[in-house]
Give the backbone structure.
Amino acid sequence: MKSKILVAMLLISMVALSGCTDISDSYKPGSFGTTEEEKQIVDAVTEKYGDMTAKGEPRLLEVMMTSSTQNVIPVDKVLKYSKDSEELYAWFIYDNFENDKINVEWIYLDNDYSIHTFESETGEDFGRGTFILEKPDDGWPLGNYKVVISGAGVEESVGFEIIDGKTVSIPLELLAGTTIDSQKTEFENAETTGELPIPQSGFKSESTSSSFIGEWTSNWGDMTFKQSGNKIIGEYTHDKGKLEGVVNGDVFIGTWSESPSYAAPNDAGDVELKLSKDGNSFEGNWRYGSDNSAWSGGWTGTRVGQSASKEIIDTVPTPQSGFVSESTSSSFIGEWSSNWGDMTFTQSGNKIVGEYTHDKGRLAGVMNGDVFIGTWSESPSYAAPNDAGDVELKLSKDGNSFEGNWRYGSDSSAWSGGWTGTRVAQ
């Protein structure tokens, strides 16, 4: 790759508050902390790292790759970029700098090629930086990359990959959990203690093999739910709404928030949604705030983008390999790395289906609490006795790994081997 075809664009934006300075091609004071989104990130950074205006040693914080930024705030955290990506964004926070030089080097690791090094100067004390590398004329080479940020005697780096596929990203962890009041406390307790909150709006939680993950149409606009660790997060079109919570059986218990403030009493509150038996619709309730007051209105939705299963599973199967199923707010939905190759799980109606790279493998089954119970099959025949059988996988407490067992066929014989995996992306 010739350097002359690598078009690099520097956009480093820092924000002004108590010594925080923007730096770019020309100086322009920013508005760090003036919008609601910026106040959220200031509060999140302060809670995690302490007072940014206090004196201390230079440090680089929250170094990450992102799909883009809004108001100098990352919209997500990218693990792998598609080869079709037009721009790559590196983002970070600097603290305790005093008009110091800062370098950001982009490296293609597969042949140790230094693509470009940005050189700039920080403001006084703290700020945020965004560096953008534009797609070269002949495209991105597939493989592994790294961005190294250095200055004032400190250095941090972040790695990523460019793949022949879709960009893989996860929600921004720094702002995860910036929700509200009582239900926020309840599903944070679920994260640490494993105790799930109880529905407050009259719903009774029941076991289900379905999931909220996926796309929906609702009376509050189009919606998308994703898994984030052991939480469920969502977005909907009405007033750029956001959802966050956990699932107790077939009930989503969490909070909603909307623009402009994303805060109670007028723009946030509690929400509870209950899945239908077939997992293809839900009904629910919402209210302003979290003061145990009466519920303010209804919320209904219908699944889109997935074919509904004609089979309704009223009785969830029991694990046979020794696992004890337990309630969980996590899900298998997403990408995994396992001892049988890379894996991807998706929801299909009220079933979980998956694929893995070993012998073009396939998985299909249902969930009983934190245990996936189903079948595996592989080429060439995708049939027992040699190319198919039973499989059971149990999620870890944090939802980021699993262990399991598989066997040939389904004749209640001894299990043939183990299956372990680690979550890659959600």
User: Anything to note?
Assistant: The domain at 3-170 is CATH 2.60.40.2550 (Immunoglobulin-like). The chain is about 5% helix and 45% strand.
